[in-house]
What does this fold into?
Amino acid sequence: MGNVRDMYDFLKALAVNNNREWFNAHKESVYLPLRKAWEADIARLLSLMGEYDDSLHGLRVSDCAYRIYRDVRFSADKSPYKTYFSAVFGKKGRKCIQAGCYLHMEPGNSALHAGIWWPENDILTRLRSEVDANIDEFKSILENPEFSSRFVFYGDKLKVVPRGYNKDNPNAEYIKMKEYLCKKEVPDEYFFCDDWVEKVADDFRYVKGFNTFLNYIFNED
It folds into this structure.
């Protein structure tokens, strides 16, 4: 046991049996070996991505990988476990406030994501200003075939242009964004191969320009 197909089988079973009794009965024999193998893959992915992203240098797997245990204190859903494995690749790992990459491995809902998730208001204000002032560069990144053939730009947005911008601003759809993200949805089979780590590292290479643009504002500090 230890390959991704086994991991997905475990996660499917966990989705049906999301309780502590079932998890504890399978923790030592199934979950922990799978987790160990997955973390070894994430270490390899960190190394490969570090070849083109200096912000990842010095990060450990423990800095990037999310735990499987859910925080249910403020959630109506009291299921104790996540039904996916996930990790963030960016400056400071899970504590990253800049643009980074996110890997989500879940049966039927796997994807690669990049960008800035729900930034704080001051960061969002600066992002909108950066996009508006450099819209041609931003659009050229989104429209680059190497990017657009792999990733789709998305994110929650306001219904109207935020205060301080003219409602007729030609860049309104980009200024209304509450977050600046892109994603590549992938089938489960994307990971069912010996070189899935290399595939992910190669795909994330094509969001480097997108993330670099979004991180311009942090270089101004």
